[in-house]
Amino acid sequence: MLTIIDRYVLRQVAKPLATAMAIGLLMLLAERLVRLLDTTLGKKNSFGVVFELLAYLVPHYLGTAIPAALFLGLLFGFSKLSKDSEIDAMMATGTGLHRLTRPVVMLSVALGALSLFIVGWLQPQSRYAYRSVLFDVKNVEVFYLAEEGVFMQAGSRTFILDKLNRSSNTFDHVFLFDYRGPSGLETLTASSGVLIPVEGQRRPILRLDNGHRLKLDRWPALDGNAEIPQASVAEFATTDTPLGKVSDSIFRPRGEDERELTLPELYMQLDAPPKGSTRNSMVAELHQRIVNVVTFFMLPLLAVPFAIGRQRSQRGYRFGIALVIIVAFHEIIEQGAIATRVSGLSPWLSMWLAFGLITAFAIWRFYATCFTLKPDRIGSVIDAFGAGVNRLWLPLARRIGLGARP
């Protein structure tokens, strides 16, 4: 059962955690939103497609946003408790710092379980769904490309439309040029037309009304002695032609990329990797996911000592050092996974060694902060560094008209 103190500590951590997660997720999605709009803008139901793609991206970004938000929530939450002397008051009642950390350890375990579900099952499925929809948008739904007064490419055909009515897919005036290589070319012009989606077909029908057709049986040669291509000219009242180019097959089945496999699938197929993957890639992906999940259990032990400090300690510099450590650790894991994927380096050296070192460091600092009376040497070094920077910065700040420290 959670006590009043446990619930209070969780509230202090939950506020910055939720804020950091919301801001981080929105920033990551906003960056991708710009690229998706560039890909889908002007196509039928483009905003619906964009929001569908963004929904598929949420699990991918949650895998990054949740641990980052938890670490920031722990830093800001315990820093506030320390700065307001609430930790001192609780410790005066006999409640140790390790006891105050218990609810956030439970929170980390819960978020770790959620992350396991996300990276182990939800993320692979949503990544495949995202790629599948994007494939359809780029390669199948060709008639969504139609825009007024813009030359567009659909397979071997180049066309331009005028005065497009998107509600009915009708338009006025069309020019269509079809290059057929050695077989020649065909040019169509029409006063009006309509784009007709065909149920069960992957290409729409382009229906043209009141037009002219020019057809050459071969491409004209620059050689003056070459035979002149035969041309045929005709008028038509109505003609139908399929628009676009369809891939030889539908989007590939899920699982050709190791990142689209769930954790059980990764483990079961280690010795028989699917097409498009290798055993090294499978091993790297499996170990990287597991390392990212078990990192949750280390975060409270690493964050709390950096958040605790004296009233006059350099908290901003402590936060900066803590963030540098966690970002560097994440980058080491990423590069370690790449080394395993490319060169076959053992994941126990490329990833688990770094995890073991930072975990040992976190346990040592947490134990020293909670159960010993020795001064925090690392914290003292950070405070001395911050004080030195301030002594150099303040005179310069006064000279340039800034009274605040960095």
Q: Strands, helices and their partners?
A:
Layout: H1 4-40, H2 46-83, H3 86-92, H4 97-139, E1 152-154, E2 157-165, E3 170-179, E4 185-196, E5 205-216, E6 231-242, H5 263-268, H6 279-294, H7 299-307, H8 315-343, H9 347-371, H10 377-399
Antiparallel strand pairs: 1-2, 2-3, 3-4, 4-5, 5-6
Helix pairs in contact: 1-2, 1-4, 2-4, 2-7, 4-6, 6-8, 6-9, 7-8, 7-9, 8-9, 8-10
Describe this structure in words.
The chain folds into two domains: 4-138 and 253-374, no CATH class; 142-242. The protein has ten helices and six strands, in the order ααααββββββαααααα. The chain has helices at residues 4-40, 46-83, 86-92, 97-139, 263-268, 279-294, 299-307, 315-343, 347-371, 377-399; strands at residues 152-154, 157-165, 170-179, 185-196, 205-216, 231-242. The chain has a six-stranded antiparallel beta sheet, with no helix packed on it. It is elongated and about 100 Å long.
List the keywords.
single chain; alpha+beta
> What are the secondary-structure elements, in order, as H or E?
HHHHEEEEEEHHHHHH
Q: Please give the domain count.
A: 2
Query: What is the CA–CA distance across the termini?
Result: 44 Å
Major β-sheet profile: 6 strands, antiparallel
Q: Could you tell me the mean pLDDT?
A: 81
Provide the low-confidence segments as ranges.
245-249
